[in-house]
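HUMAN:
Sorry, I am quite new to this. Are you able to go through these amino acid letters and fold codes? The numbers rather puzzle me.
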Amino acid sequence: MNVTVILSASALVFSAFSLFFTVRSANRREVEKTRREMLTDAVATLIEESTSRNQTIIDWHNYDGTDLSNSLINILLKHERGMAYQVMRIRIVGSGDLYECAHSLHSIHSDSTTKIVRWELGNLQTLEPRMSQEKLKSVTESLISTFRRETKLH
């Protein structure tokens, strides 16, 4: 009878530990899945905002390089604010290397915005808000490769 009680108690303890570790493992997987989904959304949206802002500048500059309307400035600023929001989302999720890449991409656009503001205030004679397309492409590719490495999506 003692052997049966001991075996039953051992089975109960083993079951409890198994349940604990199974739940703990499932929680880790769920947290990692959620983190990956958040990073995927933030990086994709950041690249979308960057591409849209860049294309807006290219379209405007190819059309007419002398007039920059308030509505166009507002569109450019909206894209930049959207990028800043995504960079903060990446930082919140806790990805250091990915944050640095995202911040670099946003900085290219931020510098362009600074030129626009300085031009509006009359501090610049001519406006050249375009960004280096090679640098923009390089930083975007670096962001994508860092994202793949970070999320193990090689």
Q: What stands out?
A: The helical segments are 2-63, 70-93, 96-120, 133-151. The domain at 32-151 is CATH 1.20.120 (Four Helix Bundle (Hemerythrin (Met), subunit A)). The chain has one domain: 32-151. The first helix runs from residue 2 to 63.
